[in-house]
Structure formats: structure tokens, C-alpha cells
Design brief:
Elements: E1 3-7, E2 10-13, E3 18-25, E4 33-39, E5 46-50, E6 59-60, E7 68-73, E8 78-83, E9 92-99, E10 114-115, E11 119-124
Parallel strand pairs: 2-11
Antiparallel strand pairs: 1-3, 3-8, 4-5, 4-9, 5-6, 7-8, 9-10, 9-11
Length: 125
Amino acid sequence: QVQLVESGGGSVQAGGSLRVSCAASGAAIWSLCMAWFRRSPGKELEAVARPANAGGSTWYVDSVKGRFTVSQDTANNTLYLEMNGLKPEDTAVYSCAAKRGWCPFTPRHSDFTDWGQGTQVTVSS
């Protein structure tokens, strides 16, 4: 089983930036398919970003394209999500997820087996 621990959430004003991290243990992140998800109040869990995997490309939900950047640090076994130009609608609990084996182009929460506890991101207007 993969253990995932997120950190780096917080409160910022609209237009600000945050970076959230996901430290993994139990497996090397280069061997996993990983993704970031978020859940906003009253909304369903939403896939946000997936890093490039096995030579493929990164994936972002349309609402964050051009503002968010997903990256991996294999030396530290950590997944990152750099968030710039934050908007109030980005307010959510951000969670990382992992799975072994094939990696879907568009992440779906039902595909992933291991989850972190999440970190709160709050953007005020």
C-alpha cells in the first residue's frame, strides 16, 4: 500500500499562489500513476491534474489550464501542484491519489486506490 501525505495548503487572496505537496512512501512515484483531485463545498470530487507518465503528457482540467503546474521530484518521492492566479472557485480540499499499473489519460477517482488525507486551500476575494 502507498502512503500519501499532503501539505502546503493555506489561505490566500485571489490572484495569489500556493504550492501543495504530496509525499509518498511505500513505492517510488515514478512507478505509480498519480493525480491531484479536489473537492469543493457542495461539489463532487474533481480531477485537477496528472503528471506526465511513461513519456506521455500532463493533463489538466480546463478550469486550471495555464494557472496550475503539476510536477514530480523523484529524488524526494514527492508530487507537487503549483497554483498561480488562484480564484475563489479554487477553494477546496486538495488530495493526491495513486494507483499501480496503467494510467488513464483523464483521471477518474474510481481508478485510484491510494489517497492522502487532503489539504485545505482557501481563496478569498
